[in-house]
Amino acid sequence: MSEVAERVPVRRLLALAIPALGVLAAEPLYVLVDTAVVGHLGAVPLAGLALGGTLFTVVSSQLTFLSYGTTARAARLHGAGRRSDAVAEGVQASWLGAGVGLVILLLAQLFAGPLVRLMTGGGQIADAATGWLRIALIGAPMVLISLAGHGWMRGVQDTVRPLRYVLAGNGVSLVLCPVLVYPVGWGLEGSAVANVVGQTVAAGLFVRALLTERATAFRPDTAMMRAQLSLGRDLILRTLAFQACFLSATSVAARTGADAAAAHQVVWQLWSFLALVLDSLAIAAQSLVGAALGREAARTAKAIGRQVSWYGLGFGVLLGMLFTVLFPVLPSVFTSDSSVLAEIPHAWWFFVALQPVAGVVFALDGVLLGAGDAAYLRTATMLSAAIGYLPLIWLALVFDWGLSGIWTGLSLFMLGRLLTLLLRTRSGRWAVVGATRTPSDSAVH
């Protein structure tokens, strides 16, 4: 009997997407608050936060396979009725996260200063960024353990508990940040300390959740970790392409001047916030697509992909309209510096216009990530970066195009990703069924 494609009920999709939205929005929303708190210290601390925060994101984002790769593997196993094996993926990803995080913590204390000076050429912004970064990266092991926790819980279609854990951790940070920055008098470094405390709370809750899964072994399993790293290799290369672009953009903005760097920080944090908001549908798609392929329902997986793409487009249009209306009032929430406010429009309208494109791109990313189609995503992202984003960023520095040049590069990057994702999803080659997906299945056809 041929398979009948199932349309996912909207209620089921929202049951996964809304808690995921809370999780995805919580961290960048906290960063926005952090930006607003630090922004009133002046342009140099805000620019230091921009650079230090970008480098911290590079570190944590480079290990996103602990989340996305674990979700892809766990969702297939969950769809095949093997929950304990799905949770075991989370255990091994947590061991990986803890070990890698400790290495990052140690390296940060040695190389944070030289790396920041290399990007900025030294000066007050470099000093501010270095102090913030050395403290913030103490939280690296906790961040990576939390990423692994998100991965296996999404895989078993539990997006409610991660929301509670993230809210608990960020709630602690939210209370501490303004207190440590102003009354205690630690300034920019106070925001980094608040980050670390909140991250420790969240990681502890994810570890406790694993311990309640009594049917799962907790010893390190090197074979399983190697399999995770095999999928992670493509996701790491994909993330490197992202980070090469984002670091270049921040570096060029910093070399343009403190005002441009601070303005870029404000608009970029809004972009990052909305990117993760839009990604809530992708998280739901990733879990549902992986589970459908695990139970060998390829037509259902393809139908889910089409469904979430239309939802992503509509969501992006609504967000673009909202932030058009908010332009006269929102930038002043983040800074009172008139020079910074004058720079913001050069990036703002690119940010608004790209929201519908981003809605579709992030939805299709979730579909292919759920299928474990990491090799194609790696290649498509690297090509889009090399052809679109990176050339424009560095030309913007050479020809003094400022933020307009930087954000033109981002626009080309997003359009390139949109084209390659549409071509792949229409081909149907990504919909490989089974409880596991071998590296050969992930080859680009």
Summary tags:
mainly alpha; 445 residues; 81% helix; single chain
Description of the structure:
- The chain is an all-alpha fold and 445 residues long.
- The protein is globular.
- The model has no long low-confidence stretch (mean pLDDT 85).
- Belongs to the multi antimicrobial extrusion (MATE) (TC 2.A.66.1) family.
- It is found in: Cell membrane.
Amount of helix: over 70%
Order of helices and strands: HHHHHHHHHHHHHHHHH
Binned strand content: under 5%
Number of domains: 1
Overall strand count? 0
Which structural category do the helix and sheet elements fall into? mainly alpha
Number of helices: 17
What is the typical, i.e. mean, pLDDT? 85
Shape: globular
Describe the largest sheet. Answer: none
Low-confidence segments, given as residue ranges, are none
Question: How far apart are the termini?
Answer: 28 Å
* CA-atom Rg in angstroms: 21 Å
List the helices and strands and how they pair.
Blueprint lengths: L9 H30 L3 H19 L6 H12 L3 H38 L3 H13 L3 H16 L4 H22 L6 H24 L10 H35 L1 H37 L3 H29 L4 H4 L3 H6 L1 H9 L1 H16 L3 H25 L3 H26 L18
Organism: Actinopolyspora erythraea
GO molecular function, one term: xenobiotic transmembrane transporter activity
Family: Belongs to the multi antimicrobial extrusion (MATE) (TC 2.A.66.1) family.
